[in-house]
Design a protein that fits this description.
By secondary structure, the chain is of the alpha/beta class. The protein folds into three domains: 148 residues, Orthogonal Bundle (DNA polymerase, domain 1), CATH 1.10.150; 155 residues, Beta Polymerase, domain 2 (2-Layer Sandwich), CATH 3.30.460; 243 residues, TIM Barrel. Helix content is 41%, strand content 13%. The chain contains 23 helices and 14 strands. The strands form three sheets. Strands 8-9-10-11-12-13-14 form a seven-stranded parallel β-sheet. It has a five-stranded mixed β-sheet with strand order 2-4-7-6-5, with helices on both faces. Helix 20 links the parallel strand 12 and strand 13. The chain is globular, with a radius of gyration of 28 Å. The relative contact order is 0.07.
């Protein structure tokens, strides 16, 4: 049976939809007010017949009739008509806190945004800031509200867990009852998606039966709650903000290495190394692997996939320090927050040798994509800045690039007269993402075979936890890139991490070059390359197979060879 809050929610949805579809404003206000007041009525409206409902002063005949219909069917005719007239994705946007119907109408009818993934992409690429009634603060709040909505589902981006892990690390570090601790689980393996945060702890006093309970209570002022546990329990589950699961495991020093490895690795990895054949008396993870007659396997590789085939390669895996340049970045010429000069200067301050500026192409009107004349204008500014760097004795260089939309027929977004002017062309699909595999392949192959394409951008168009991306046969697309000398982007933004790291091993075995690109829309975003490095290591990427791991000289040689 519906309660008054349920009925209030249904009427409130009706008021929002009526407002969204430009209904009578007085009626909208009347319905919204009634929906609010219904929650204060002491009688259970679902138990009343239509005549009794009409006698309630706050309702009236028309509203009483609607509520009676709600009690019978869960909805009513006028609401059903509005629901049928509204795209499902727009209904989802309407439920985002802080976005009223009028703003949703602008997003839908003016900007053409029809679902939450599109809205999040627009916010991340700063497409809303120039729209009246929005701005940077509203845009940031929308991102926050969307993330909260998706976080309710119990899965999280690795990057979003960093602050919580730091909070817990600081708390454990300052707790005198803890002798040693370490994060474990998905987070320690640098998984792109985190389902829980796991920690292994050693108490200073192993005989304390209330150790974990005391730890949980010490975190109570940090928005962390817990379920009661019996004395001497060696595990406890906490909840951060009623959303993020945190598991704490307690052990003694003699079992530290055994438990830390067990709580870090996947079940598949433990089976692969025959972990269960051992006792638990190992102080270090190194001792566990030694007992299994294996070299130490770094945490990020403990997936139960190909780690035993890459034992000698672990020391060669790419690190953040190996990156020499940063490719695929946006400026105020399209939808970036910072100017060309600001982006370049920041990259130089990071110790990088070069930056590739790849603003959106002309078809991306939503992102202020560059018409040919603006391409030439930007190139002129790049030449001026490069001359300035040279005069100051710097070898740092800005590379002329574009993120060219892959059009519906697989062509790129400019004529060859323009395309040949770029140092870098990142070819990406941004429109009509709901494709069957054959259509996706047709578009991608058309772009890959274009002689001016340098890098295939975010190959599947996925947004982690929000959009799966269009379907592709990864082997087919990777093979095509290798055959045409096209590098493959690992888009390092933590919402994308596309290509999927699970295909990197196949790609480099085929001879592909992987480019770890931040797709930065502001200077701080250049550091997102770290997220790409994290997952690239899981796919056994080395600096030699990373396009922006090349020095400026070697990168320019690579471009020159590709164009021969």
């Amino acid at each position: 049976m519906l309660d008054n809050h349920d009925i209030s929610g249904i009427l409130n949805q009706y008021a929002k939809l009526l407002d969204l579809h430009n209904g009578n404003p007085f009626k909208v206000k009347s319905i919204a007010s009634a929906a609010y007041n219904i929650k204060k009525i002491g009688e259970h409206l679902a138990e009343l017949d239509e005549e009794a409902l009409q006698k309630i002063p706050l309702l009236g005949k028309g509203l009483a009739s609607k509520i009676y219909e709600i009690n019978q069917t869960g909805s009513f005719e006028e609401l059903n008509d509005l629901l049928l007239s509204t795209p499902k994705g727009v209904l989802d946007i309407l439920n985002i806190k802080g976005l009223g119907p009028k703003k949703v109408e602008i997003l839908w009818r003016t900007v053409g945004i029809t679902d939450i993934p599109e809205l999040l992409d627009a916010c991340r690429e700063n497409r809303l800031v120039e729209i009246k009634g929005f701005g940077y603060k509203t845009q940031a709040q929308i991102i926050s509200d969307i993330e909260f909505k998706f976080n309710q589902e119990g899965k999280f981006h690795w990057a979003k867990m960093q602050a919580i892990v730091s909070l817990l690390n600081e708390s454990f570090q300052s707790n005198a009852s803890i002798k040693r601790f370490s994060v474990a689980g998905d987070y320690r393996r640098y998984n792109d998606i985190i389902e829980s945060l796991d920690f292994v702890l050693i108490p200073l006093d192993i005989s304390n039966p209330h150790f974990l309970k005391n730890i949980a209570e010490s975190l109570a002022n940090k928005d962390i709650t817990y379920n009661p546990v019996p004395e001497n329990s060696n595990t406890i589950q906490l909840l951060y903000n009623e959303v993020v699961r945190i598991n704490l495991y307690c052990t003694e020093l003699t079992n530290w290495g055994h438990l830390l490895l067990e709580k870090t690795a996947t079940t598949a990895h433990l089976e692969l190394i025959n972990f269960n054949s051992l006792s638990s008396n190992y102080e270090t993870e190194e001792q566990v692997y030694e007992a299994l007659k294996l070299p130490y396997i770094i945490p990020e590789l403990r997936e139960g996939l190909n780690e035993l085939k890459h034992l000698e390669q672990q020391n060669e895996l790419i690190t953040y320090k190996d990156l020499k340049g940063v490719l695929h970045n946006h400026t105020t010429y399209s939808d970036g927050l910072h100017t060309l000069s600001e982006m370049a200067t920041h990259a130089q301050s990071m110790g990088l040798e070069y930056i590739g500026i790849c603003d959106h192409s002309q078809s991306a009107t939503y992102a202020n994509g560059l018409k040919p004349e603006r391409v030439l204008e930007q190139m002129k500014e790049i030449d001026t800045l490069n001359e300035k760097f040279a005069k100051n004795g710097s070898t740092f260089k800005i590379l002329k690039g574009i993120e060219s939309d892959i059009l519906g027929d697989g062509n790129l977004d400019y004529s060859t007269d323009i395309l040949r002017l770029f140092d870098i062309v990142v070819a990406s699909i941004h429109s009509n993402l709901k494709m069957e595999m054959d259509k996706a392949h047709s578009r991608l192959i058309g772009a890959i075979e274009n002689p001016y394409t340098t890098i295939l951008g975010h190959p599947t168009g996925r947004l982690l936890l929000m959009r799966p991306g269009y379907p592709i046969n990864h082997e087919y697309i990777i093979d095509a890139c290798v055959s045409n000398g096209v590098a493959i982007e690992l888009n390092a933004h933590p919402y994308r991490l596309d290509m999927d790291w699970r295909w990197i091993d196949y790609a480099i075995n085929k001879g592909a070059m992987i480019s770890i690109n931040p797709d930065a829309h502001q200077k701080e975003g250049l550091s997102d390359m770290q997220y790409g490095v994290n997952v690239a290591r899981k796919g056994y990427l080395t600096a030699a197979n990373c396009l922006n791991g090349l020095s400026l000289l070697d990168f320019e040689k690579w471009i020159e060879n590709k164009r021969k």
